[in-house]
Amino acid sequence: MRDIDVTLDAAQKLGLLPEEYEKIKQLLGKNPNFTELSIYSVMWSEHCSYKNSIFWLKTLPRKGQKLLTEAGEENAGLIDIGDGLACCFKIESHNHPSAIEPYQGAATGVGGINRDIFTMGARPVAQLNSLRFGLPEHEKTKWLLKGVVKGIGDYGNAFGVPVVGGEVYFEECYSTNPLVNAMSVGIVKIGETISAISEGEGNPVYIVGSHTGKDGIHGATFASEDITESTSEKLPSVQVGDPFQEKLLLEASLEVIKSGTVLGMQDMGAAGIICSTSEMSAKGKHGMEIHLDKVPLRQQQMKPYEILLSESQERMLVVVKKGKEKEVERIFEKWDLNCRIIGKVTKGNALKFYMNGELVADVPADSLVLGGGAPVYKREYKEPSYYAETKKFSINNIPEPKDLKKISVCLAKNLNIASKKWVCEQYDSMVQTINMSTNCISDAAMVNIKGTNKALLLTVDCNGRYVHADPEAGAKIAVAEAARNIVCSGGEPAAITNCLNFGNPYVSEAYWQFVCAVKGMGEACKKFDTPVTGGNVSFYNQTIIDNKTEPIYPTPVIGMVGILDDKKNQMTLDFKKSGDIIFLLGTPREDINSSQYLVSYHNVKLSPPPFFDIDEEYKVQSVVKKLIKNKIIESAHDVSDGGLFITLLESAMPNELGFDIITPAEIRTDAFLFGESQSRIVVSVNPKNEISFIDFMMQSKIPSTLLGHVTKGKIQINDELWTPVKDYKNIYDNALTEYANE
Amino acid sequence: MKFGVVIFPGSNCDQDIIYVLETIMKQEVVKLWHKDTDLQDCQFIVLPGGFSYGDYLRSGAIARFSPIMEKIIEYANNGGYLMGICNGFQILCEAGLLPGALLRNIKQKFICKNIYIKTETKNTILTSEADLKKPLKVPIAHAEGRFYADNATLENLNKNAQILFRYCDEKGNCSESSNPNGSLDNIAGICNKNRNVFGMMPHPERASDEELFNTDGRMLFESLLANLKVKV
After folding, report:
1. B 86-145 → A contacts, CB under 8 A
2. Whole-number Cα distances in Å, A309 to A41, A371, A381, A676, B162
3. In a domain, B123, yes or no
4. A157 and chain B: CB distance < 8 Å anywhere?
5. Alpha helix locations (H) across A14-83?
6. Which tens digits make up the pLDDT trace of B105-147?
7. Which among B12, B56, B213 has CB closest to A440?
8. Boundaries of domain holding B181
9. For position B215, which CATH number holds?
């Protein structure tokens, strides 16, 4: 076949830098042909190589007693949760595809992250997702929201893994670059996992699952560039998902792993066959000989580079023990899936790809991958000018409004705060009968591990506005909030996965945000003893429209897993009965920094993040843990978006109870009710436990404030009657539904 | 007693019903693979929820042609006990073992949430232990659950007391607002005229485990055991 001329120009068109093109020539000792060039362009893309992030990611705490595999070693993180079981989990972005094709973009995001879990031998048991859209009134928002939610629902519902939690935010900076981050969590017996490795010269290499088509070619490269007005021309870079095939692939994969015939397995995600063959080979220090004409194709006349780079979904590469071919083929036949030998493991490190007997590419496996030949860069970074601006903010310049009731109603129906019922009800949250939160809600989602005393606690958290205001502090808050959610549910934080959504790494201000956020995250993960098990970096999240660059808020989403050792210690967030006494743990402050209240009511866009002190946070969390273990409190709910008022409301609504509270004289009432300063938790106490509670708090030396008591349904603040809880509930529950349906 | 749970490609509630029958109700359960034709002498067969064959064409439309269905139709026509939950109900309607059809939800969306149903008859082995006054909290999770039947069929269903459950509110009132998917007359579950084939959209297996804090659905399985144990 005739090759396209390979020149620097061709290399640059595929997203490679001039110095990278030179490096490829050196590595190969010759000018690459077009197939080889394409291989390097995807494998060295940001998406696959982490070339601009890996230096900083390695500074994160990545070791811990519970970790069964180190970050980046396998397709997903793996932690020991006791009882001979491990939890396998990861979060990943699908932002760019979702920006132009929200339905398929989100659906394949769900498919991809679940494959990362079951390719390791774990059965996915829970999903969470973290979504960001533009402001509700932006012309694209509703289309993106509906498409993304339907995409996640249609894929996950058919696949049969419950969505147990997540977050949805609406901010201007995500208008044309939404964020779609999907997390999957699986369970596997320790010792029954399988690695993404290739071993043993002569062992057959299989491709299993769906046919390979022309979808998603250069998808990884596409994910590694800015979104512009012409981005929709990249539609062929978006993959198309089929959850039915994925479900069959899941069952067949777990069955074949159990049969003991498999040496290594890796799903095909970004960069398709080339990524799986090179990563498995580099890890196993072997080569492969692959015959591309053996790959089952969806369409005729696909070129070798198209077969290599295709991101067709629901496929796996499997290295099988020689002699076990029949057994493997029988299992895939049972599930009506393709299962085809496409090559074999070889000595050395060369990946040789053939098409109808002709060698079309010959590249050293390790030269392609992260930790091998892939480039590593430390980019320039510079503090952006807005950062100094944030510090000029003072609450003293903001007059305290008279009508706080009106503000409370506005906050309850603000789409960042209001119920996400419209979204959640489109997801199957109960399949697998393990979601303990359906009938009993806590700050973190609770997932039953049947047959043990344990449950998993799961949460995804990030307030991008705080991270924008101060990336280091904001990232710390994201980790702290995740840990707080787990602690308030009665559990112990164990480990995190992260999805780092940032702007263009070649823009020094955007890179500054990245570097600072990683520093903050690292410090917080050390403090809470939650090592990073892996995750995903998504750069280039910015939108160029009319030549003006609009970066997103830096959004390092934290997916945290916690363990509840004894299900009897589960803590819920709802008030239980009228007469129970309400306390606020932690220090109240006159702080409205970066609050939803400041942004939506006073229209102040720039201010520092809310007050946060990591040691104070740690102490508050420790106290809550003990209060729960000693059964002194009836409910626990942390103060976050919307401030204390919203926290009280969220505790009151489930049982349609109310609250009667007094606010302290020394703090402005608007700041006390709507400020978002961190490290505060609202608890309710049965009057019979009041004395033990007070004694306990005295000893703990953590400040606690008596707020008032739970009522039968009225809301009263400083002896003034506010709207009854029923009405708030109506507003809070229906705001998003009304928006979506109008 | 011995239960059989049919596994179609794309079934995804199979393990949930197996867990309830085996672990919670302590019964023998065998899995029946869709390519097989041996029903293994089961006394009660369940078609579980999920997306059999990816719901391609129409929910349940392809599953009814699978090898095992031929045997199951024969079994049901000979009086064998058979129940379809969610996708299983859709398959039973497609196979003609139950009257009516399940159309796309009136709001055109997949809905997953807790709803309430009230039992309409105690005259079946599935509902004999029911308290007709007590609404049951049982979740639904479907996009195509709007029960529909023509007038003559509906009349027969009513006349023969074949309607098992209707959607209601937590106080037991059936109204448009307590109808989550637009089903005809709030119908959530039915049986055939011979009262040996049952279908329902709500998932009782999702409301049977104390660890999930809702056991309203367990009554159905308790009824089955109370009725069938004696017979065997």
Report:
1. 109-114, 139, 141, 143
2. 10, 21, 33, 47, 56
3. yes
4. yes
5. 18-28, 34-43, 46-49, 54-57
6. 999 999 999 999 999 999 999 999 999 999 999 999 999 999 9
7. B213
8. 2-227
9. 3.40.50.880
Beta-bridge partner residues of A522: none
Measured CA to CA, the distance from residue B165 to residue A249 in angstroms comes to 36
- Closest among A475, A566, A491 to A527, alpha carbons compared: A475
In a domain, B201, yes or no: yes
Distance CA B78, CA B88 (A): 19
Which chain B residues are Cβ-neighbours of A254 within 8 angstroms? none
How many domains are contained in chain B?
Answer: 1
CA B50, chain centre distance (Å): 12
CA–CA min distance A161, chain B (Å):
9
- Please tell me if residue A446 touches chain B, with a CB cutoff of 8 Å: no
SS3 A650: helix
Which residues of chain A are within 8 Å of residue B109 when distances are taken between CB atoms?
A: 426
The residues of B annotated with a catalytic role in the active site are 86, 203, 205
Compute the distance between CA of residue B209 and CA of residue A211 in angstroms, rounded to an integer.
40
How many alpha carbons lie under 13 Å from residue A718 in its C-beta half-sphere? 11
For chain A, helix (H) and strand (E) counts, in that order, are 25, 26
Instruction: Report if residue B232 sits inside a domain.
Output: no
C-beta atoms of A430 and B206 within 8 A: yes
Please give the biggest Cα pair distance in chain B: 45
Is A211 noted as a catalytic residue in this protein?
no
Closest residue in A to B49 (Cα–Cα): A431
Residue type at A677?
A: S
The answer to whether A243 faces chain B, any CB pair under 8 Å, is yes
Could you report the per-residue pLDDT of A683-708, keeping only the tens digit for each?
999 999 999 999 999 999 999 999 99
Chain segment A125-154, per-residue pLDDT in tens: 999 999 999 999 999 999 999 999 999 999
Is residue B88 assigned to a domain? yes
